[in-house]
Design goal:
624 residues, alpha+beta, 17 helices, globular
Length: 624
């Protein structure tokens, strides 16, 4: 272009000169814009990331605040679980849902596999460096780059490489189970950057939470995986980069983990105060009663208790009286979550929301709470009860109504203004006023009572099975069964062993089951797994209700795309209102405390984080 300008100057062609100068100017603007785009695409490496706002801990933090940083490592702990296992691979569908506890475990910790980043349980949703020493991303979260820690290595001493990261995600895509198998569906490309960095560039399917899910994905060693057999169940001891190695396996009964003394991350800030035992064993039991008896005998060291009645009445055995066993009560600062009898809407009878609402009203919570639980429970009215994310007591404001749009017409008006509550019975088990309201709803759904039976318009009796997995669930189901029988509804109760329960829930082979839907202060992609259309027919997903509703999908998408805290809160409340109005389950109860009994020799940090007690930070106090 400069040559053109000089030619034009020599020829004294003013018009040509002006055109050339303009072209030169536009060319420079284009170059500068390109440079600006390149600069904008680059980001400063950071030590941590958060879903909303900034992580609480600075770059030079020494450890998470809820650990004992100077703990003496050593000793052992024995956990107990109800169930069985047939594989040490937690990433494939053919493994049971109770696969090898401890491999990839929200309760006991990820003992064998490290992820790119580590979550702090004292913040709503913040991650700090683990395999990735630092990360880079842009404000719009169109990409995330993980800069691997040069010290990161596998248990066999080989380094963790970008090739391992890329291999893991491709392997999960081809051979893994949900949600691992779907991760790359939101990625435009994944590429190695330099010697030890990996960049994920996202497509238009990705949301703002997705980079954090990528960061929490466990990484596998490319050199130690047989791709051809990866999707087959196996008891072969796996190779990981985590703090423990599998040392012993007794199929279906026991797994023993030994701490790796050469664990590469033991001095990282995100790992200080964790992984404190030399040995961790996980013992499997067929029934909870057997597990509790083993704890009473000292064969199991820690027993989380879920029953308030049992907590009040059953801990009078000698070890408690002598002080050998300690009872701890913790109060987390998290939402209630939702426990309920879940309707499988894949069954035609449960497609009608009026029917589901009527059946929900039949359950007499007040009777059950009084007679089964000594009044210890609170009725759950919202999926995010006890938090600012709940609809309870809050009318939908203009921001939330804007997100809802026409969906507001599907929401119960009293839910929309925050005043709705499930009816309170007289605790008789047959409150006529509440049952009358239930019958009205069932009539609107096309059912009526004839000759003592609840029949459809076609004369088909309303009948279904409630599948339970233990004695506690069975008692509650029998209570529900009696109330249903008063309206001529034939509900059978069937308690199955853990193996059958897992197989049937994975394949959605049930009418009604009891399930818990935990709620966090940062709900996100798990809502797709619980309620999204795309998870309805994915075997092994947590969409137990079989929901496939475009309006539910829309509100979940609002949650995933929210940038500001205000938009995020409005989106969660809107989602809460629609779930409550649709009655996908019979809401049951919650308690604001966590109860754990432990052997006295098992110590714990004095600080309880936001999400409650954290077993991976506990330790053996007998270690000298």
């Amino acid at each position: 272009m400069l040559i053109n300008v000089l030619i034009c100057r020599d020829s004294r062609d003013d018009d040509s000169r002006r055109r050339a100068l303009r072209a030169l100017f536009l060319g420079l603007i284009s170059v500068l814009a390109t440079l600006g785009t390149v600069v904008a695409a680059q980001a400063e490496p950071v030590h941590g990331i958060a879903m909303h706002g900034q992580p609480a801990l600075p770059a030079d933090f020494k450890n998470f605040p809820y650990v004992k940083p100077d703990v003496k490592k050593g000793g052992r702990v024995s956990y107990g679980v109800v169930g069985t296992f047939d594989s040490l691979n937690p990433f494939i569908l053919k493994s049971m849902r109770t696969t090898a506890r401890g491999m990839l475990d929200p309760e006991y910790g990820n003992l064998v596999y490290d992820s790119l980043m580590q979550r702090s349980r004292d913040e709503a949703f913040s991650l700090y460096g683990l395999l990735a020493e630092t990360v880079e991303w842009d404000d719009d979260r169109t990409f995330i780059q993980f800069n691997l820690n040069p010290k990161a290595k596998w248990a066999d001493g080989q380094p963790v490489t970008p090739e391992d990261v890329i291999f893991t995600f491709e392997l999960f895509r081809d051979k893994g189970r949900v949600p691992f198998s779907t991760r790359l569906a939101k990625v435009d490309k994944v590429e190695k950057i330099g010697e030890r960095s990996v960049r994920f560039t996202f497509n238009d399917k990705a949301d703002r939470e997705f980079p954090l899910l990528i960061a929490m994905t466990p990484i596998l060693p490319k050199h130690a995986i047989d791709v051809a057999t990866f999707d087959q169940t196996s008891l072969k001891f796996p190779l990981g980069s985590g703090p423990y190695r599998v040392a012993e396996v007794k199929p279906g009964e026991r797994i023993v983990y030994k701490r790796n003394p050469d664990y590469w991350a033991k001095d990282l800030p995100a790992k200080i105060g964790f992984d404190n035992y030399d040995e961790i064993s996980v013992e499997y039991f067929l029934q909870d009663n057997s597990l509790f008896e083993a704890f009473k005998k000292g064969e199991i060291d820690i027993y989380p208790e879920g029953s308030p009645t049992k907590w009040a009445r059953s801990y009078n055995f000698p070890a408690v009286q002598s002080g050998k066993v300690i009872k701890d009560t913790f109060t987390p600062k998290t939402p209630s979550g939702m426990l309920g009898f879940v309707f499988n809407t894949r069954r035609p009878m449960f497609e009608n929301p009026k029917l589901r609402q009527g059946l929900a009203l039949v359950f007499d919570f007040e009777w059950a709470n009084k007679n089964l639980f000594d009044g210890a429970y609170t009725r759950t009215q919202s999926f995010w009860q006890n938090s600012g994310l709940s609809y309870l007591g809050v009318a939908a404001d203009s921001r939330e109504l804007g997100l809802l749009g026409d969906i507001r017409n599907r929401i119960n008006p009293s839910v929309l203004d925050g005043t709705y509550r499930l009816p309170v019975t007289d605790a008789s088990g047959r409150d006529r006023n509440v049952l009358r309201e239930a019958v009205t709803l069932l009539r609107e759904a096309g059912y009526g009572i004839k000759d003592g039976k609840m029949l459809s318009a076609q004369g088909i009796p309303l009948a279904f099975e409630i599948m339970t997995q233990n004695e506690g669930q069975e008692k509650l189901a029998l209570t529900y069964q009696r109330s249903l029988a008063a309206l001529g509804i034939a509900a059978s109760v069937r308690t199955v062993d853990d193996s059958q329960y897992q197989q049937r829930t994975q394949s959605f082979d049930y009418d009604i089951i009891m399930k818990s839907f935990p709620s966090s202060l940062s709900p996100g992609i798990e809502q797709v797994t619980y309620w999204g259309s795309q998870s309805r027919d994915q075997q092994g997903s947590s969409n137990f209700a079989g929901v496939a509703d475009k309006d539910v999908d829309t509100l979940v998408d609002h949650i995933l795309r929210a940038v500001s805290v205000e938009d995020f809160t409005a989106a969660v409340r809107a989602h809460d209102r629609l779930l409550v109005s649709n009655f996908y389950l019979v809401p049951l109860y919650h308690v604001g405390s966590q109860w754990v009994a432990r052997e006295k020799r098992i110590g714990r940090p004095s600080i309880v984080p936001l999400y409650g007690y954290q077993l991976p930070a506990w330790f053996d106090e007998t270690v000298q």
